[in-house]
Design a protein that fits this description.
Length: 136
């Protein structure tokens, strides 16, 4: 009976420590994400100079591990089904870019379970399309 009680206590202690470790990992990942975003924000002016189709471009953190890119179009963009089709065709390109460039770089910076959300807005600030990309 004592062995069973000792085994149960050990199991509870192990589960408790694992939960604490998970919280620590999440906090470490969130801190790494914030640091990574701060570094990446230095690239925004260069990006805007190169891609005049966007009036604004933002990089934000959604802790603990999601990098958010937000794009504001300069001109009117297709709406409805035509617009969705156009934006949906971008998804494979975004997935490839995330898998080959963003996710490895995020992991190198200590971001566990990296994810990237791409959000696009019309010139009036209304969201027209959003996608969450996870590692494939």
């Amino acid at each position: 009976m004592r062995r069973l009680a000792a085994a149960c206590a050990a199991l509870l202690l192990t589960v408790g420590l694992a939960a604490c470790s998970s919280d620590t990992d999440s906090a470490d990942s969130a801190a790494a994400l914030e640091e990574y975003v701060e570094t990446m924000q230095a690239e925004v002016p260069t990006f805007l100079e190169s891609f005049t189709m966007y009036s604004d471009f933002r990089i934000e953190a959604d802790p603990p591990s999601t990098l958010v890119y937000e794009y504001d179009f300069t001109d009117e963009v297709p709406r409805g089904e035509a617009g969705d089709t156009y934006m949906d065709r971008m998804r494979p390109t975004l997935q490839t870019m995330a898998d080959t460039q963003l996710f490895p770089e995020m992991r190198e910076h200590g971001i566990a379970d990296p994810r990237v959300r791409f959000r696009y807005f019309d010139r009036d600030g209304e969201e027209i399309w959003s996608v969450l990309i996870t590692p494939s």
